[in-house]
Design goal:
The chain is an alpha/beta fold. The protein folds into two domains: 111 residues, Rossmann fold, CATH 3.40.50; 179 residues, Rossmann fold, CATH 3.40.50. Helices cover 35% and strands 18% of the residues. It is built from eleven helices and twelve strands. Strands 8-7-6-9-10-11-12 form a seven-stranded parallel beta sheet, sandwiched between helices. α4 links the parallel β4 and β5. It is elongated. The chain binds NADP nicotinamide-adenine-dinucleotide phosphate (NAP). NADP nicotinamide-adenine-dinucleotide phosphate (NAP) binds next to α7 and β7.
Length: 314
């Protein structure tokens, strides 16, 4: 019998139509139906839903829901909005996304490593000063988070000759990377980092992890790249460290409030690069294939892909 699965998304209609058009044809013996078009009887049969910013009330219409497949890699909002849900939350794990993020990390690390913000400012003032070039192997990069994205970024930076360290919750090993874990490891990594890259999920443990105290542990003149989630950094504390010159530059792709409000001081701070959440967009073509594979496997074997562990929040 043909199975029904639901698409539940609070996204612009043209985006919804693109997802339906890409995923639908990849599903065998399975009908993908947008939430608005499901009958009450069909709602009772739904075991799997594909979600993109879903309204929790709509998911509550499926009493037999076993898991939801998010089309995004970050599911912080979903986890926060559905604390007691009876179903599993599966996020998008796409090697294509990890390599896109690694490319962004390399690009913006080189931007800082080769002093591009400094030369841009000099040009504005018609100033001709040559700064010393630091050897790649002497440029210390610290990555917070060694998951799907952090690992791919670390590998890319190592391949390009940087001196790379990383920090994760559990201790881990990664070729060519000095790995740290735990509170002590966090302090150690910060103390020996020139460019700090944040690729952590937002959880109760990582919220404002980068605050006045921890930012103060970075050596004077260090820079920061945040490609994870805005609330991991205390924006006020960051601004004050940027103003004092303790932190030289920040490249920010994510913010406490997005889009970044026009009155935010981050827009005009001379040593901040503001990006509009573009470091690693979902690729609809590769992501659709992954969704289809996960769903086919579930209907063949009952296997639910690795889901978020609610107690740890990611
Ligand atoms: P992931 O595979 O779940 O990896 C998370 C990493 O963070 C793991 O290494 C984990 O440690 C570590 N971690 C979590 N909590 C920690 C803690 N309290 N202390 C120390 N380490 C901790 O996640 P991912 O796929 O790499 O994605 C990371 C985040 O990137 C997402 O949650 C999302 O917010 C963000 N993101 C941003 C964009 C963008 O365009 N800006 C795009 C996609 C994703 P363990 O290895 O020990 O578990």
């Amino acid at each position: 019998m043909q199975k029904c699965i639901a698409f539940v998304g609070n996204i612009p209609n043209h985006e919804k139509q693109s997802w339906l058009a890409k995923i639908g044809p990849l599903l065998k013996n399975t009908r993908l139906i947008p939430f608005e078009e499901l009958s009450a009887t069909q709602c009772l049969t739904i075991e799997v839903a594909i979600v993109a910013n879903p309204d929790p009330k709509e998911l509550a219409e499926f009493p037999n829901l076993r898991w939801v497949q998010s089309v995004w890699a970050g599911v912080e909002r979903l986890v926060a909005e559905l604390p007691n849900a009876h179903f599993d939350i599966v996020r998008m794990i796409d090697p294509n996304l990890a390599s896109t993020m690694a490319e962004a990390v390399l690009a913006w690390t080189l931007y800082l490593h080769r002093d591009m913000p400094k030369y841009r400012c000099q040009q504005d003032r018609k100033v001709w000063i040559q700064h010393d070039l630091v050897d790649l192997k002497d440029r210390k990069i610290g990555i917070l988070g060694l998951g799907q994205l952090g690992k791919a970024a670390a590998e890319k930076l190592v391949l390009n000759g940087f001196n790379v360290s990383g920090w994760s919750r559990r201790s881990t090993e990664l070729e060519g990377v000095k790995c740290f874990s735990g509170a002590e490891g966090f302090n150690q990594l910060l103390a020996e980092t020139d460019i700090l890259i944040c690729l952590l999920p937002l959880t109760k443990d990582t919220q404002q992890l980068l605050n006045d105290k921890s930012l103060g542990l970075l050596p004077k003149g260090a820079s920061i790249i945040n490609f994870a989630r805005g609330p991991i950094i205390d924006e006020e504390a960051l601004l004050s460290h940027l103003e004092s010159g303790h932190i030289e530059h920040a490249v920010l792709d994510v913010f406490k409030t997005e889009p970044l409000p026009t009155d935010s001081a981050l827009w005009t701070a001379p040593n901040v690069t503001v990006l509009p959440h573009i470091s690693a967009p979902t690729n609809i073509r590769t992501a659709s294939k992954i969704v289809a594979i996960n769903i086919a496997r579930y209907f063949e074997s009952g296997e639910i892909p690795e889901a978020v562990i609610r107690t740890r929040g990611y």
